[in-house]
Every structure is written in structure tokens, then in C-alpha cells.
Amino acid sequence: MLKIKKHILILLLLCMLVPLFSQVVSFRLTAASESQNIFASELYGAKWMSLNHFFKIFGEINLLNTEDWSLTATLSGKKYKFFANSAFYQINGKWFHLPTAVERLSYGLYIPEREFIRVLALDAYPDLHYDVADGHYILVSSDFSISAVNIKEMKNGTVLRIKTTKAFRKEHCRVWQGNNQYLYISIYSATADMNGLAKKYNDGVIREIIPVMAKDMLQFNIKLRMKIDGIDYYIDQESGDIVISLRHSYQKSQTPLNETEIKNRWLIDTIVIDPGHGGKKSPGSIAPDGTLEKDITLDVSLRLGRLLEEKLGVNVVYTRTKDVFVPLYQRPKIANEASGKLFVSVHCNSVDSSKPYGTETFLLAARSTEKSIEIAARENKVIELEEDKERYEKLLSPEQYILSTMAQSVYMKESEDLAQAVESKFKSRLGTKSRGVKQASFIVLIGPAMPAILTEIGFISNWTELGKLKKDSYRQEIAYSLYLAISEFKENYEKEIKEN
Ligand SMILES: [Zn+2]
User: Fold this and answer.
1) 345: left (phi over 0), alpha (psi -120 to 50) or beta
2) CA of 55 to the centre of ligand 1 (A)
3) 3-state helix, strand, coil in the chain (%, to 5)
4) Alpha carbon of 283 to ligand 1 centroid (Å)
5) For 142-181, what is each residue's pLDDT tens digit?
6) pLDDT tens track for 193-247
7) What are the sequence ranges of the domains in the chain?
8) Biggest CA-to-CA distance, the chain
9) Degrees (nearest 5) of the Cα angle 18, 21, 23?
10) What's the first-to-final CA gap in the chain, in angstroms?
11) Helices 412-429 and 472-499: crossing angle, nearest 10°?
């Protein structure tokens, strides 16, 4: 009998305590922040929440005076003071009045939920609102368009989900891998709470996320623990999130690559040759006798490719091998997807005057200036005929240029070395004038994540040079000069890596 009584007693006690502890009021700082449950309790038929707990989570408790049971706390830079059994409270020393007095329960001060929400909205969080679907009060309704980055590690890859609060298009985003185990994601016209997004990870493929705000653009510099094999990204139609999947073999990361393996990755084993122009849409320059640039560039490119395959034993990838149209933006894409280690775009020059002649080789201009765009205008001209003209105009705008060219910019020194080697071989072998190494904003040079050059092998607007360019033997000599330059570059480059 006594035993039963004891049980009933415990049960009764539990029934009394449960409503006291089981209730919470849920908050999030922003819609994307972590959920915080603040202790609450049922009193007089209403929900009361703990001031102590709230200020502990979202603010800072400065003083808990157990003599008069007053609580002083800082929230959003303001001093709040509440008193037990009093309907008066202070913000920065100024008095305000509540409809109900604050109650003291054994472990702190309690206030009716509804009244406290009004207090918060009055001053600290003017945007405070209740998200019905989420069941949370959101303290700050941010205008940030990127609210969070979530990472999901899987067996053969990692998925990064960039949570958005506005719609982005795929063209707004650029994702690429740098050479120092960095992944870069730039999102045009995005904003975010930088501190909230910066994060370090103790394990997994992602080591650290470093958000950087540039003009009109948010960029994530993501430090990786290992090289990734491929990147895909898309916009999730349902949520609007930007989803980036990184393909890699997670197993590999367990056993770090040995030095030889790391070095082998940098060997120039795949060379991408880009024969300028192509197809009916883009014949390139047209010589006075009707010779088309696209035919000369393709022939020289194929000759060069054969030499590289035969003599260097490298893998050669062409952006085209026939007379077909390939949009400019696709050419670097082909190169990157093939994991190319060098990119060589072959073109012929043409100007209104028939006087100029000789060769010149370009690397990408470091800045987008009127002059650099003007020089590149003829080769970029084909964008007029492409459907997505805007895509390119944005790329070239001075604000976005630095970011669009980031993939290439890390290889500028190598690109310049290669361009120098090419011009020097042309000079010594072709018997024509070398006009030197130059820089310009060629669209085709923007994207490749590898050393990249655009070589103008001669002026088809000059009769003498046109005559030479039409000869098989001369075109073979051009190809051979390019092969020698690449071969020399490859040797120097790989030697440097082997020594390091
Ligand atoms: Zn051209």
C-alpha cells in the first residue's frame, strides 16, 4: 500500500513538473540560423518564457541580482533591466511598462511570451516576425540572398548546397577549381552575412569556407583537403538553392598522395588546341582572294596536334576537328573538362591596311580596359552571332573581369612564358616579323584553368603573307615552330616541378 502511494506521489509530482519544463518558445536569429529553444512554462493559462535563458542565448547577462531579483542584460547593444514582481522594465535606463508583472520562478525571471515579443520588436528586433510554417520567431529578417552553406559528404563526392532567398540563374554563378586545393564559387549580385558563413571543418573534403564580398558579387573561397576530380552545379528548381557537387574518391584522401603522384598531376600530358572560328557562322577573317581564316587555323591546328602526339606522346584535345561552329564559351569548357594542361588558340590576323605582317601571340589581359577589348574585338566579334550575347558582355565588364578571369589569372606567368617561346620560335624559323607578346581581353582565354595563349600566325590581309600561309610547307613550319615552343615550355615547366 505504501509503495503504491509513493508511486502516485511521484506521478503527481511529474504531472506538475512536466508542463513547467516541456514547453519552449523557438527562435532563430535569421531564417537560416540554428533553432534555439527558450524555456517556457504555463502560468495562468498563458505561455511564459525565461528571460534568463533568452538573454543567455541571444544576448549577454550582465548581472543577476538575487537580492531584488533583477536581471540586467545586453541585447543588440542595448541594456535591458527586468525586475521580479514588477511590470516596469528599463531599456538603456529609460522606463517602460508591461501589462503584467514579471514573475520569478525558482530558477529565474519569466515573462508572458506575447509581451516579451512586443518588447523585442519595439527596440532590439524591429523585423521580428513569426514564421508559421517553421514554428519559430525570426528575429532578424535579413535581405541577404545567401543564407547558408550546407555540406553533405558522400562516398564518392561532396554536395555543397548554397541556400538562397532569391532566385539565381546558373549564369549568375561560376564555379572552378584553382591550383592550390582551392575551389572558387562566385555568385553575381549575391549578399550574405560574412561572419555567419565563414566556417572551418575538422574533417571531410572541405577544410574551410571563406566568404569574400567583392563589388556586386559574393565569392566563396573554399579550401579543400584534396583535389577533386570534377565539378557540376545546378540551380535546384524547387528550392532555388545553388547545388554544387564535387566528384572525388573519398578513399583516396585517407591515404595521402605521395610526392610522385602529386607531381604527376602537374605534368603536361594533355594539350588543348583551339582552331579559331569554324562553321558557316564564323569564317573568321576573309582574305582579299576569298581565303578563309577558319580553314588555315584548322589545318595548322591539326598539323600541330599530330606533331605533339607523335613527338611528345601527349594527349591532344581539339575544340573542333571539322568545319563546325563552336561558341566561344564552349572552347575553354572543352579544355577544362578534358583536364587540359595547356591551351593554344590558333588565329590569323587581318586589318584594313594590306601593309602589316608578322606574328603576334597573346595572353589574357590582366585588366579589362577599352584598349584590351579593342585589340580583342575582331576575335571576340563572333559573340554578336551567338544567342547568349549578354553572357560575354558581363564577363568583360571591368567589375566582373577580375573575377571572371580568376581561373586563368593564376597561370599568367606560365601563359606569358609559353607566348614568349612561341614568338621566339616563329622569329627564328618563319622568316617573318615577330610583333611580340601582347595582352588583350580575348574571351576564349578567359576560362581555361591552365596556361593559355592565342597566337596570330600571320596577316591574311597582307598579300605576301597570305601567299605563304596558303602553302602547305609554310603551315607545316608554323606547326613545327609551335610544337618546338610547346616542347621547350613543357620541358622547363616539368623540370621546375620535379626540382620543387
Ligand atoms: Zn580569328
Assistant:
1) beta
2) 66
3) 35, 30, 30
4) 9
5) 667 888 898 887 767 788 999 888 788 888 888 988 877 8
6) 777 788 888 888 899 998 887 766 788 999 998 888 888 888 887 778 898 888 8
7) 18-138, 146-254, 259-499
8) 119
9) 100
10) 85
11) 140
Q: How far is ligand 1, taken at its centre, from the CA of residue 166, in Å?
A: 40
For residues 456 and 24, give the distance between their C-alpha atoms in angstroms, rounded to a whole number: 71
Å from CA of 430 to ligand 1 middle: 20
Between the CA of 46 and the centroid of ligand 1 the distance, in Å, is 77
How far is 187 from 162, CA to CA, in rounded Å?
10
**Which residue spans within 106-168 are E strands per DSSP?**
108-112, 129-131, 136-138, 146-154, 157-164
Cα(471) to ligand 1 centroid in Å equals 19
What spacing in Å lies between the alpha carbon of 453 and ligand 1's midpoint? 13
Q: How far is the CA of 301 from the centre of ligand 1 (A)?
A: 13
**Ligand 1 geometric centre to CA of 393 (Å):** 19
Q: Ligand 1 mean position to 380 CA, how many Å?
A: 8
What's the 118 CA to ligand 1 centre distance in angstroms? 67
Rounded to the nearest integer, the mean pLDDT of the chain is 86
Q: Please give the class, per CATH, of domain 18-138.
A: alpha beta
Candidates 300, 310, 317; CA nearest to 430 is 300
Give ion ligand 1 contacts, CB < 5 A.
Answer: 276, 284, 347, 379
Cell numbers standing for residue 492: 622547363
Q: What is the whole-number distance in angstroms between the Cα of residue 429 and the centre of ligand 1?
A: 22
> What is the Å distance from ligand 1's center to 315 Cα?
24
User: For domain 146-254, is the CATH number 3.40.50.2300?
Assistant: no
Residue 338 alpha carbon to ligand 1 centre in Å = 23
- Check residue 57 and give left, alpha or beta (phi > 0: left; psi -120 to 50: alpha): alpha
How many other CB atoms are there within 10 angstroms of residue 94's CB atom? 10
According to CATH, the superfamily of the domain at 259-499 is Zn-dependent exopeptidases (3.40.630.40)
How many angstroms does the Cα of residue 348 sit away from the middle of ligand 1? 5
Q: How would you label 460-492 residue by residue, b for 16+ Cβ within 10 Å and e otherwise?
A: bbbeebbebbeeeebbbbbbbbbbbbbbbbbee
